[in-house]
Amino acid sequence: MHSEDADDLGVKEGEVLLLGFKDVELYVKVIITDSELTQGEVGLYEELTQEYHIPEGRKILLDIPAPTKSLEAIRKKISGHRLNEEELLSIMEDIGSRRLKETEVAFFVATFFSPGFDDDEITWMTKGMAQSGEILDFKYIKDNKGLVVDKHSIGGTAGKGITPTLVPILAAAGLVVPNTSTRAITSPAGTTDILESVMPVALTKEEVYKVVEKTGACMIWGGSLYLAPADDEIISVERSLRIQEFQKVLVSIVAKKIAMGSTFVLIDLPYGKGTKLEKPDDLEFLSREFEKLFHRFGIKCVTHKRIVRGPDGNGVGPLLEMKECLKVLERDEKRSEELEDVVIEMAAKIFENNGKAKKGMGKKVTLDLLD
Amino acid sequence: MHSEDADDLGVKEGEVLLLGFKDVELYVKVIITDSELTQGEVGLYEELTQEYHIPEGRKILLDIPAPTKSLEAIRKKISGHRLNEEELLSIMEDIGSRRLKETEVAFFVATFFSPGFDDDEITWMTKGMAQSGEILDFKYIKDNKGLVVDKHSIGGTAGKGITPTLVPILAAAGLVVPNTSTRAITSPAGTTDILESVMPVALTKEEVYKVVEKTGACMIWGGSLYLAPADDEIISVERSLRIQEFQKVLVSIVAKKIAMGSTFVLIDLPYGKGTKLEKPDDLEFLSREFEKLFHRFGIKCVTHKRIVRGPDGNGVGPLLEMKECLKVLERDEKRSEELEDVVIEMAAKIFENNGKAKKGMGKKVTLDLLD
């Protein structure tokens, strides 16, 4: 089978498929190639074609067996039972490789709302989600004691200009900051959309390594890197719901950061009317859960809670928001003080937590870098 | 628009769609025909084609607006809130007319398992499900005081031979019994499959009326009658789960009986290891819920609880099971006593509850009819 077809169908080398031709039914083992066949073609060993009289150039049927283990686990969860590690890993693997139907993914997504998952289940799911795709490693870049820093916001209406302002400041202090962002999930435009107004954001893995080696940082779209693909599948199914359960937000973000090889993550938690966090209890809950879940994967997490009353900065729309970022970095007189303040506070926190500034000196270090 | 296309898309006459052609965007009202157009074609009034320069034979885009009310209601339910009548009716209508995506239906199905629905919600949902399709009326047939009788089993492994044996007995006593059955949902073959071994089961509405007027009864496949189509859509989505929540079973059966215009229904509740009812509590719960829900629609319901230890009768497989039924009716010496006993008990219950036999005399009346 051609590798592109195998990818599309979520079929792996060595897997057993049911082959049908007229009244012949055979179980066959998949071998993947991209030189011997073109897309849409399937090759069979000569013994097979002769023994079963399958002439060349004919259509055959290939049936991919349903992933019973993961489907069984979804059934178990929807009936209110707890899942074990093996079950959650198999669900994530089968979602990531698109072996589960969209409706089956929807049944799984529904269980986030009720009955929900306990800490262990969340950990296993996060692990499985991260393992469903590429895992990158930037620890060897620069003599940084293996430190790989990132910042992530839970999103909502506010804060899309922060990343493009903050990341260059962190890199200027010598930190390694491979940052990925998303396009809009529940709002009309995401950080990726803003960045794309001035630079390419869909890089290959090789390009990402090159950029980070050269500059210490990158700001790219996570979607082109095959990071935690199970998450992308889930997002595409849950999009029409237009609401994300908090545990789902948590798993999503932590899995992507594991896949990017982060060792320190600042989580931006904007709260207030119109954001994703309208209730103080939700804010405290999510803050605690992020720290706990990151910790389970050996990643240090610091949360940054800030109240917002509207979009940060003076600009709205990708290009205007990008201009606001540049104004802060270029020390423009008309820069947004609000955006600058948020960025300085975050940079200070990151510096103080990673040996780049002493306690209480983070803001000064940041301002020195800016001026 | 051609009627077949409209059916496929779930579009109704008079509905407003968004038409796109190049940079033209228009809201257009749907008129359905099956004479002026062939399938896949769409016709536009000449005023439109001239004013907006849309040449003949070109592809246009038709966007069907998302059913926001029902989707909003599904979101509300999945977040744990109670729904009102209007919301449940709109969900059922939009599922029945296929305006909701399969994943959205899956989100709704998941809420049966958790958080579940209260009595009012179940009633409104049942009403909406029945109203999503045709509603038949057999009250005028025979001078029967508007009595329309039916029997339904919740299914599982046992009891598929009961209906083909019982219905003719009921009809022989002068009852009106328009019975519909299903093909397999969670088991490999259903009552419909057995009946189909000896007679046509996919009748049109007109044919059904004709058969019932002539014989007093029918035994047909419900699937060809557009009865409660919302249920069929839900069943197709939940099939891969291979489990049905009890509330779902309840709503499904009651909605179909409302659509068939039943006024008295005997619900067969087989219980025991290997059936859908393994726990005594489930049996009592379902029995109570059936009586309650039918009552809310003015339908009298009597449940028939019976323990089973395997398939009824001696035959397994459509043709053998059909032969077993005929043996009982023909008083064959080698008939299955087990099947006969069950059928006689049910017939007795139905006769005693509908003035065809005095209390305690139902079995005698049934035996007299058989011999």
Q: Hey, roughly how much beta strand do the residues of chain A contain?
A: 5-15%
Class based on secondary structure composition and strand pairing of chain A: alpha/beta
- Main sheet makeup of chain A: 3 strands, antiparallel
Largest interface: A-B, 25 and 25 residues
Protein name (chains A, B): Thymidine phosphorylase
GO cellular component, one term (chains A, B): cytosol
Keywords (chains A, B): Coiled coil, Glycosyltransferase, Transferase
Organism (chains A, B): candidate division WS6 bacterium RIFOXYC1_FULL_33_10
Structure, briefly:
Chain A has 371 residues and is α/β, with parallel strands linked by helices.
Tell me what the structure shows.
The structure is a homodimer of 371-residue chains. Chain A is an alpha/beta fold and 371 residues long. Chain A has 3 domains: 3-63, no CATH class; 68-131, Transferase, Pyrimidine Nucleoside Phosphorylase, Chain C (Transferase, Pyrimidine Nucleoside Phosphorylase, Chain A, domain 3); 149-227 and 236-370, Pyrimidine Nucleoside Phosphorylase, Chain A, domain 2. The first copy, chain A, has helices at residues 3-9, 46-51, 68-78, 85-96, 102-113, 119-131, 162-172, 191-195, 205-215, 229-238, 246-259, 280-296, 318-329, 337-353, 362-370, and strands at residues 16-21, 24-29, 61-63, 149-153, 177-181, 217-221, 264-271, 300-307. In chain A, the strands form 3 sheets. A 3-stranded antiparallel beta sheet of chain A has the order 2-1-3, with no helix packed on it. In chain A, strands 4-7-8 form a 3-stranded parallel beta sheet, with helices on both faces. In chain A, helix 12 links the parallel strand 7 and strand 8 (300-307). In chain A, helix 4 (85-96) packs across helix 10 (229-238) and helix 7 packs across helix 14 (337-353). The A-B interface holds A 66, 71, 74-75, 78-80, 101-107, 109-111, 113-115, 237, 240-243 and B 66, 71, 74-75, 78-80, 101-107, 109-111, 113-115, 237, 240-243.
